Amino acid sequence: MPEDALLSINQVTTREQWSLRQAIEGYARHGVHGIAVWRDKLHELGVPEAVGMLRGHGMTVTGLCVGGLLTAEDGAAFQDALDENRRVIDEAAALDAQCIVFVAGGVEGGSRDLKGARERCLEGLAALLPDAAAAGVTIALEPLHPMLCANRSVLSTLKLANEWCDRLDAGPELGIAVDVYHVWWDPDLEEQIARAGSRIVAFHINDWLADTRDLRLDRGMMGDGVIDLPAIRRMVEDAGYRGHREVEIFSERNWWRRDPDEVVNIIKERNRSAV
Ligand code: ZN
User: Fold this and answer.
1) How much is the pTM?
2) CATH architecture, domain defined by 3-273
């Protein structure tokens, strides 16, 4: 199979240059038929219009970003977050997305109760899984780098994601997203990827720049940083993963400022030479 056949681009990679309509047309024009969709861009275009365009261009939606953010201490805010996640589930079903990328949420303003935040997130997940199952949607837990624990995700390691999956004991409505940016540093990586096995439903690629300047918005193109991408690709494939490689690059200083057609061409080249 040609290397590009399982290539997907998370639209955040061209977020500053292209709307969802332009991203669908642009990626398809370059022969890339996988895309991960962000909800703000989806709502700009409208769900029915997006569904028609994705279908018309033969696109596979490898993820809908983002669900989760289920750590609110306030009961009403927690219920609101659950309701919002049910809308995400409906949208993922409409787009026939392979998964919802689930970001846990951080430690809420002023709180020091990290343990409680993790418990609430698990409780929220347990409440949502029946809805996901009924809709035929998979919620993919994406552990985020521990540097984001305070404000974005209390789910910090692949080991913890595996433990949550064990505890929730769900079917195909629950999986794991492995993003190299968040897990490359982990001494338990190989063991935890093997343990995740068929739970892995998404594989996100990019690179960690040695001189990174921002903890979230300064990701590198594959091959420009310190991550051993072929090694991690081998681990997920040894674990049985046969799905897309989704390029996901937040890059305020570089890639968001480049001509998006050039960005896609470089992605295709690096997918062949650096992954
Ligand atoms: Zn990711």
Assistant:
1) 0.97
2) Alpha-Beta Barrel (3.20)
